[in-house]
Design goal:
- The protein has 328 residues and is of the alpha+beta class.
- It contains 10 helices and 11 strands.
- It folds into 2 domains: 143 residues, GHMP kinase, C-terminal domain (Alpha-Beta Plaits, 2-Layer Sandwich), CATH 3.30.70; 157 residues, 2-Layer Sandwich (Ribosomal Protein S5, domain 2).
- Strands 1, 2, 3, 4, 5, 6 and 7 form a 7-stranded mixed sheet that branches. It has a 4-stranded antiparallel sheet with strand order 9-10-8-11.
- The protein is globular and about 60 Å long.
- The N terminus is likely disordered.
- The structure holds (R)-mevalonate.
Length: 328
């Protein structure tokens, strides 16, 4: 299996020293509780260090300018519309919380790049926002309280996705598995074992906002859908218990339950179902779609020994790319 290599310039981690104006955040995977978390249930997520977003700050010509790879236009602190508006909002918010007057600071250019595909359920928008906020705080040498980071990034995510629980910012800023409940501080989950995960991209893309809205409409109209969401919401506590015991067979089986529930809510696609099935046929302990659904990735829990077979099976089922990652 040829594993995609992370570009060298994105290859260091939060543990590695960075330049004063650099900020980084990882991609993320949700192991249990997506969608249910919007409605107050707990969820479990892990960072995906194999993919990251980076922001770096260099001297500018005038004011604060935000430039993102892949977008022809730049944003300024006045930008309130368009694809870069959430980043402008995060920059405004960060400067205000640092009590810095935008007119009194030197001209800056904030550059953002990300290896995390957008619309694939891997937290791409949250990661670029968290990277940008970290870069700004580092540039000005001000310590960044994690709850402030979470607050700034969740508000900015709200502009991108509508109702956002805040799980994506929490997961992309984390260094290990977390239990997350809306409005609460993320709780790290200690792992006695490593999690060997294979992440297969369906190549299909979806926006989170409409998927969250679709679930809300269903649960308001249909008691069956409400029951399915409630069942999805009960998976995270059982999974957390299994994780802390290192009981990976149970974790895998709960991932399968989660995929089935998400599929009942119309969040899977034939391709995602095929990838999840292929992972199990390749010997995975469990597999599920991750994130808002409607496309994006399937995450499979495997063993070191079996990772190759699982990845091969998912590639044969049409994965456009496959990433292997180990947590922690
Ligand atoms: C998206 O990664 C997870 C959702 O539950 C939305 C959210 O919690 O913000 C679908």
């Amino acid at each position: 299996m040829s594993l995609p290599r992370e570009p060298d310039w994105l290859a260091s981690t939060e543990a590695a020293p960075e330049a004063p104006g650099d900020g980084r955040a990882f991609g993320k995977l949700i192991l249990a509780g997506e969608h249910a978390v919007v409605h107050g249930y707990p969820a479990i997520a892990v960072p995906l260090p194999a993919l990251s977003a980076l922001a770096w700050i260099v001297p500018g010509d005038e004011g604060v300018v935000i430039q993102s790879e892949g977008y022809p236009h730049v944003a300024t602190l006045q930008t309130r519309r368009g694809p870069l508006a959430p980043l402008a909002e995060a920059a405004r918010d960060a400067l205000a919380r640092m009590e810095l007057d935008p007119l009194a600071i030197p001209p800056l250019r904030i550059q953002v790049a990300s290896a995390i595909p957008a619309g694939a359920g891997m937290g791409s928008s949250a990661a670029v926002t968290v990277a940008l906020v970290r870069a700004l705080y580092r540039f000005f040498g001000i310590p960044l309280d994690p709850t402030i980071l979470q607050d700034i990034a969740t508000r900015s995510e709200g502009m991108v996705h509508g109702a956002s629980s805040g799980i994506d910012p929490a997961a992309v800023a984390a260094t290990g598995p977390i239990r997350f409940r809306k409005g609460e501080t993320p709780h790290p989950i200690p792992l006695p074992v490593t999690l060997d995960l294979v992440v297969a991209d369906s190549g299909e893309r979806a926006h989170t906002g409409p998927m969250v809205a679709m679930v809300r409409t269903q649960i308001e109209a249909d008691p069956q859908a409400r029951a399915t969401l409630d069942a999805l919401g009960s998976i995270a506590p059982s999974m957390e218990q299994a994780l802390v015991k290192g009981d990976l067979d149970t974790v895998g089986s709960l991932m399968n339950d989660a995929h089935a529930g998400l599929a009942r809510l119309g969040l899977s696609t034939p391709k995602l179902d095929a990838l999840a099935l292929a992972a199990l046929q390749g010997g995975a302990k469990g597999a599920k779609l991750s994130g808002s659904g409607g496309g994006g990735v399937v995450v499979a829990l495997t063993t070191r020994e079996n990772a190759h077979a699982v990845a091969k099976s998912m590639q044969e089922a049409g994965a456009t790319s496959v990433i292997y990652t180990r947590i922690p």
